[in-house]
Amino acid sequence: MSAHPITILGTGIAGLTLSQCLLKRGIPFHLYDRSPTPARNNYAITLYASTYRALCKELGISERVFLERPSKPTTNSPTSPSPHPPPRNPLRNTSTSQTPPEIHTPGLVIAADGVHSAARAALLPAIAPQILPYVAFNGRRELSNEVFEELYAAAFASSPIPLAIAHKIGDALLSIALVAQTANTTTLSWTYSRPAPPADPCFNPTRPVSSATQIPEASYAELAQLQALPQPFRDVFDGEKVRGERVLHWLMRALLVPSEELTKLAGKGVVLVGDAGHAEAILGGEGANGAVGDAVGLAGWIEENGVEGVERWCGERYGAWEEGVGRSRDRITAMHGEAEGKAVL
Ligand SMILES: Cc1cc2nc3c(=O)[nH]c(=O)nc-3n(C[C@H](O)[C@H](O)[C@H](O)COP(=O)(O)OP(=O)(O)OC[C@H]3O[C@@H](n4cnc5c(N)ncnc54)[C@H](O)[C@@H]3O)c2cc1C
Predict the structure, then answer these.
(1) Ligand 1 near 285 CB (within 6 A)
(2) Which of 120, 271, 282, 283 for mutating ligand 1's site (highest number of atoms within 8 Å of CB)?
(3) pTM tops 0.85, yes or no
(4) Domain 130-251, what architecture?
(5) Which first-to-last residue range defines the signal peptide (predicted)?
(6) If you measure from the C-alpha of residue 162 to the centroid of ligand 1, how many angstroms do you get, rounded to a whole number?
(7) Is the beta carbon of 297 within 6 A of some atom in ligand 1?
């Protein structure tokens, strides 16, 4: 194995998984993040069994420990999603508990700095995520467990989707996910989404990243007009309750950096992984699964081959990126119907 040192930018799921895999193999690296603390807006992610099994192996922990969430069943199917969004903590704790590597001059830079990657923007300024034409608003609701039992529990119990329920009105999708439950309270995440026709007043694809909490008035008006919803959707999408909450205007970002650009960059010693290289829309996407796959695969490749010629890894992995991005676009269309509007850069 080559002794070239490695620099990883970003401690998201890709960067942390990669760092753990390299530590396990005794390969030195530096790990940087722009933020000194974990992300403030933590959210649950669904990892497929094939992904979390690979992760557990790298972390050296059992599936039971990884999936451990209060009083819920687990799945053993190799392809079905984990019914419990695994927390990031096992990964973060395991990674940060290791001895930091020695200082080296960077040889290979691995940009795992997310969909807004500064490394990608600096080196490939013409390439940016597309915004798919979908309106999507997301909020959180905390309820007492009594209210949950009274209004929600039966719908969740009979839902075919693990820990989530959904209701369609035309091409609009109303979904509710169970995020957490304590002895007294239940936290839900709700999302209202639909295709955005051209000039839709509820869709602002050019909003700055920092303006996700600015909700167009037209969106509140649209939610208030939802008529005769069945419970528990009536309770969650109640216009007055929604106005009192922190609501996020989600944008559906999709990205696939062209293969030839990746290869050129890798030839210069910079590899993009995770959302920095290929991003899938929040709704219908499986970006975290792809990010873990990149990290585990790249670490194994480096162990076998060193860092020279890493562009070959990019070429080998690219098919999975294309498939993932294509699949996620098909899924968001199937969830809502075809969008009339166009993707925006
Ligand atoms: C609400 C929501 C729900 C999702 N649900 C799912 C799901 O259920 N299943 C799924 O598979 N995927 C899901 N995803 C997508 C998934 O979260 C991403 O695909 C995944 O987090 C990408 O991991 P990453 O490590 O590439 O990037 P990120 O997780 O974005 O991490 C990037 C890291 O880089 C750091 N960084 C940024 N800029 C710099 C810089 N200049 N220098 C150094 N560090 C920097 C950031 O601080 C961050 O720590 C969801 C996404 C969202 C937003």
Answers:
(1) yes
(2) 282
(3) yes
(4) 2-Layer Sandwich (3.30)
(5) none
(6) 22
(7) no
